[in-house]
Amino acid sequence: MLSPDQTMRPTSEIFDAEAAAHELHALAATYSGRESDLRTAVAQFLKGELARGREKAEQLLLKERHGRRCAERLCAMQDEIIRVLFDFASKRLYPSLNPSEGERMSIVATGGYGRGLLAPGSDIDLLFVLPYKQTAWGESIAEAILYCLWDMGLKVGHATRSVDECIRQAKADMTIRTAILESRFLYGDQALFDELVNRFDRDVVQGTAAEFVAAKLAEREDRLRRTGQSRYVVEPNVKDGKGGLRDLHTLFWIGKYVYRVRTVEELVDHGVFDQDELKMFLRCEDFLWSVRCHMHFVTNRPEERLSFDIQREIAVRLGYTEHPGMRDVERFMKHYFLTAKNVGDLTAILCAALEANHTKSAPALGRMIARFRPRAGRRILSESDDFIVDNNRINIAKQDVFERDPVNLIRIFYLAQKHDLAFHPDAMRKATRSLNFINKDLRENPEANELFFEILTAKNDVEPVLRRMNEAGVLGAFVRAFGRVVAMMQFNMYHHYTVDEHLIRCMGVISEIEAGTNEEYGLANELVKKLQPRQRDILRITLFLHDIAKGRVEDHSIAGARVARRFCPRLGLNNAETETVAWLIENHLVMSTIAQSRDLSDRKTIENFAGIVQSLDRLKLLVILTTADIRAVGPGVWNGWKAQLLRTLYYETEPVLTGGFSEVNRERRVAMAQAEFRQEMKDWPEDELESYIARHYPAYWLKVDLPHKVAHANFLRKTWSAGRTLATQVNFDAARGVTELTVIAPDHPRLLSIIAGACAATGANIVDSQIYTTTDGLALDTISLTREFERDEDEDRRASRITDTIEKALKGEIKLPEAVARRAAPKARFKAFALDPDVNVNNEWSNRYTVIEVTGLDRPGLLYELTATISKLSLNITSAHVATFGERVVDVFYVTDLLGAKIGSPTRQAAIKRALLALFSRAATEETKQLAAKS
């Protein structure tokens, strides 16, 4: 709670309280005797004043770029509105000429409003404090204020309690306790508020600090579990996410409660923060408030998620500009993530101070490496007397350990990893303050580099140790190229994390692959066992470096290979090993691209890929690298389809690289896949099972994972038993966040186009497809759609509408061009991105077909438009491969002319390219027209 000198009412710069009071007086005269009309008029007047005040606050925020000041202005305006309402209600509506002792009231701001800071869309939390029980006068005053605030469109939380009730409920409920902790006197009876303050400090706070701290930290952990444990997700929650405003609030709540302070500045006097850390706290707070206020102004609602569609506008409002290799929005988001990291540092600092104060138990600090069990006592590590073990956490033995020997800045992480130790916050605080000792000499120091090599290639805890190195700033200082990607986001919908977080997560995935504990990694689990120890080391280093050149003007794969050639000799790699790392980095996207967007049954595809890879060892490394890279992109990105595609590509390429020899040749792999399928389908009669197996071509058995094979079999059996050749089925893939539609229908050239058109007509967006034909002329298509609803019941109803439309379209009951034209429109989230389209017409990728590769910005209806245009160009689509990487679509079509020949004429190839590129131009023109019409 605020001290008396802080409870003085601030003067609002954006709201004239005296003029408002005069207007309310005039309205009272105008509507004399018509109380209902008067209340409405007052609410409408104040609503208009509130809107004008917010406009002024927004203008000042754009001019000054000071978020906390904006929040203070908005709060001061709200204070004045409530004061005007209280005076109006108590003097004009319900005057009490001779008030009794019970007719006293103190209006108190609580929660966020109690802090004296409000965002444009923040809730207003009020506490009406009474001396005893509620009276008719007090009830009337409170209702008059609340109804007016509600009529103004504000979201108001309120409670009416006596002082005794406040104290009793604060003891029992931690949320109420926190709300009263931040209470701030607004208007009414000051003595009542002072009584509440004194009794709260004496009866509730005193002697309960440990209980409060434990509750607030547990509450934080629960919140982060719900919003996401990483502070490096690319669409963060500014209020409740890790490193957001709520974390700063929690810090202040704890500091206020434990140290009995009223301001953050007072924490310096208690030795919790030093002056630099205080400045960091204030900078973080001001920046986060700037972002939050802008978000509310831009969206005109209490939006707390910094989503892609508003990130760039916020960046421009905050004054960020584009630099070579980094867009304005990426520079803004980098600042955001660095701020979130600083909030995390402040949290660790406060926790260390609390532990020293015996307010917080030591074991709770080991959450960074949660599996460790604390062992009591302190001991010196045998490898170095510069470090001690304190309750199973590594700490510095003396204050000068890093200054005296800078190698200790790397050694501390090596020793923690080797001995399964968590990190003491004091040691991390000292390491962060010692980054100036990481210079060229240390980067070239053989011992330091050897220790870092051991950290990267260790069998245990690589990911958490690297993350702590990164959060302390040591990793980016020691590997300067890594420092350039710290907190760097990629402004796209494919990557879920910042670049540095992605690289660190890759190290965790490769550890899982090597352990072989997760079956979802498929072939990678098998191949890693065949690698030599040195090859595993090379793979670790490659994963750590593969995206390290993101954010540069040139292609990050090429620039990354150059970084590797400079960095790998530092770690002791010879020339051949260094070149292997460089080659893997330069080609780390090749296998993923070919697996997902090429026909793997086409011999030319395999020959071209083998020409790039050139050796079986490289192929093995590339499979594992690709698996870890995709898996670490984010939840749901890696799936069984992709695992199966990589497996197929590997086994198709292996005999080409070995001169015909293969550990498992194609026929054998088909037989193995069919045997695996038979094992799963034991309940089928043998003759029916063999008949079903014969209806699929070899490519189907090699490319489809077992769960989908089983689902397809049951679906097709049900369809055929009903005497149908056209049917649809719906499944939900929770891991990927997509809805899968499986369609069985007679095969014909425009089948994919019709299915895509039906999806577009219902507003569904296709993000992936798997297309196969049976030996008896049926097509089996599995289409993955972006999920729209969180609840399966709602999504199932939507999917039923889509499948119904597909079946009607395939029967010719719907005119698709008109239906698509009425419905298809760019998704709001896609509008935030700009992506130059490209069409490649290539005759070198296949011996039999011309391959058309289309890349560009995804939108509902795009696949339909592409396939319909290709058909209008008198081309026959024999194979299509649809892949979506966030907002970027890569659609590949294997085509011939109507006579089954390749498209060899340069003139015709140019016409195809122009026609397909025009689809993107028309979409951009339509969007411009829509925006113009709205404005």
Automatic annotation (TrEMBL):
Activity regulation remarks: Uridylyltransferase (UTase) activity is inhibited by glutamine, while glutamine activates uridylyl-removing (UR) activity.
Region (Uridylyltransferase): 1-380
Swiss-Prot/TrEMBL catalytic activity: [protein-PII]-L-tyrosine + UTP = [protein-PII]-uridylyl-L-tyrosine + diphosphate; [protein-PII]-uridylyl-L-tyrosine + H2O = [protein-PII]-L-tyrosine + UMP + H(+)
Gene3D superfamilies per the UniProt record, alphabetical: 3.30.70.260, Beta Polymerase, domain 2 (3.30.460.10), cca-adding enzyme, domain 2 (1.10.3090.10)
Gene Ontology molecular function, alphabetical: [protein-PII] uridylyltransferase activity; phosphoric diester hydrolase activity
Keywords per UniProt: Hydrolase, Magnesium, Multifunctional enzyme, Nucleotidyltransferase, Repeat, Transferase
Keyword hit for Transferase: yes
Biological processes per GO annotation: regulation of nitrogen utilization
Region of interest (Uridylyl-removing), residue spans: 381-739
EC number annotated for this UniProt entry: 2.7.7.59, 3.1.4.-
Cofactor(s) for this UniProt protein: Mg(2+)
Domain of life the protein comes from: Bacteria
PROSITE patterns: ACT, HD
Reported function: Modifies, by uridylylation and deuridylylation, the PII regulatory proteins (GlnB and homologs), in response to the nitrogen status of the cell that GlnD senses through the glutamine level. Under low glutamine levels, catalyzes the conversion of the PII proteins and UTP to PII-UMP and PPi, while under higher glutamine levels, GlnD hydrolyzes PII-UMP to PII and UMP (deuridylylation). Thus, controls uridylylation state and activity of the PII proteins, and plays an important role in the regulation of nitrogen metabolism.
Family, similarity comment: Belongs to the GlnD family.
Comment block on domains: Has four distinct domains: an N-terminal nucleotidyltransferase (NT) domain responsible for UTase activity, a central HD domain that encodes UR activity, and two C-terminal ACT domains that seem to have a role in glutamine sensing.
Name the record gives this protein: Bifunctional uridylyltransferase/uridylyl-removing enzyme
Organism of origin: Pseudorhodoplanes sinuspersici
